[in-house]
Amino acid sequence: MAEVLGVALPHNAAIPAVDARRYVLAQMSGMRAVEIAREGLTLSRILTREAFENAIRTNAALGGSTNAVIHLKAIAGRIGVPLELEDWTRVGRGTPTLVDLMPSGRFLMEEFYYAGGLPAVLRRLGENGLLPHPDALTVNGRSLWDNVREAPSHNDEVIRPIDKPLIEDGGMCILRGNLSPRGAVLKPSAASPELLKHRGRAVVFEDFEHYKERIVDESLDVDASSVLVMKNCGPKGYPGMAEVGNMGLPPKLLRQGIKDMVRISDARMSGTAYGTVVLHVAPEAAAGGPLAVVRDGDWIELDCDQGRLHLDISDAELADRLQSIAPPREKGSGYQRLYVDHVLQADEGCDFDFLVGCRGAAVPKHSH
Questions:
Q1: Is 252 helix (H, G, I), strand (E, B) or coil?
Q2: What ranges in 97-235 are assigned the alpha helix state H?
């Protein structure tokens, strides 16, 4: 995402750490940093609305991580660019996933780099009219398209042609409903197609510790159609919003050969994780969101085509349950308390509220 946003030099995204070209690019970056200082090129000229739309489209072509949703929103907030969850639907949906890369596909990052890396993907998108803003400025002073127009592609198995995508639509799925009024995120390229429209009974874990204790219980009332729901793992509830959303399945179902289930939480998951996992539910449980009042046995409906995540109870019952939520416990002191008091929700980027829109500060002169 840094490379397609234009704030990293071409090829930065994928050079393996042990490849000598990583060292060369580091030196080139240092030299370019000095030139930028002399030229007066600022981040606000590079990190434009157009750059973020390029990043959203490219993330879909890569089968990229759900974490990109939070990171791009946070970066946009800092620079003052309006970016909403719906932009992921408007710009990203319908984009074919071209890169056959784990966990969605077969290959590793090293093989992606030797197949041509990100420049090859951007060229393929651009040549097929799928790069929204090819003229966007990048950190080397050239446009994104100027950087990639002649980029070679060495392996059509790893970086696929447009007419032979890994997945027809790799765009991130944004879900809303009474369970996620401010949005939730699902990565279709890592999900099981047959579960993208699903209705099942909730099996609820109040937090990560409760999940670890309960998931191994052989008497747990759960089957393959159940929906695993974990609470209190969002930015406030599990301070820092840990990557625990891709819950492991109950061992007794794994022994039956079950490989995937619908899972829902206010947590994140690693970009290397796989499964039909709904993440970043906002507001989170610890902030009084509807996720906090889901109970064992509640029916939950997931419909990715319609962007819907629904808890099948009446509005009146939902309101009654929300009224009964106990006030949140104070979380620690010092930096942890500062974090919990000021961190934004996932749909806003999980940045501190007092840093949104900051552009740096003047350096005071030394007094003598």
A1: helix
A2: 109-114, 117-127, 144-148, 208-214
What proportion of the chain, given as a percentage, has pLDDT over 70?
99
What number is the average pLDDT over the span 7-23? Answer: 96
Residue 358 has what pLDDT?
75
153 is catalytic: no
Asked if residue 139 and residue 39 are part of one domain, the reply reads yes
Instruction: Give the Cα separation of 134 and 125 in Å (integer).
Output: 10
The answer to the question of residue 61 being in a domain is: yes
For the stretch 265-293, pLDDT in tens is: 999 998 778 899 999 999 999 999 999 99
Task: Report the distance separating Cα 36 and Cα 38, nearest Å.
Answer: 5
Helix (H, G, I), strand (E, B) or coil at 153: coil
Classify 333 in phi/psi space as left (phi over 0), alpha (psi -120 to 50) or beta.
Answer: beta
The 10s digit of each residue's pLDDT in 74-117 is 999 999 999 999 999 999 989 999 999 987 789 999 999 999 99
Using a 10 angstrom Cβ sphere, with 0-12 exposed, 13-18 middle and 19 or more buried, the burial of residue 302 is: buried
CATH number, residue 249: 3.50.30.80
DSSP letter, residue 37: H
Q: Does residue 216 share a domain with residue 306?
A: yes
Given 192, 270, 314, 324, the catalytic residue: 270
The domain of 186 spans: 173-323
Q: Which tokens belong to 260?
A: 């995937």
Return all residues near 249 (Cβ < 8 A) that are at least 6 apart: 215, 228, 258, 259, 260, 261
Identify the CA nearest to 267 among candidates 250, 289, 284. Answer: 284
Q: Which two tokens stand for residue 72?
A: 């791009």
Number of structural domains (the chain) is 2
Question: Which residues on adjacent β-strands are paired with residue 143?
Answer: 137
- Does residue 20 sit in the same domain as residue 130? yes
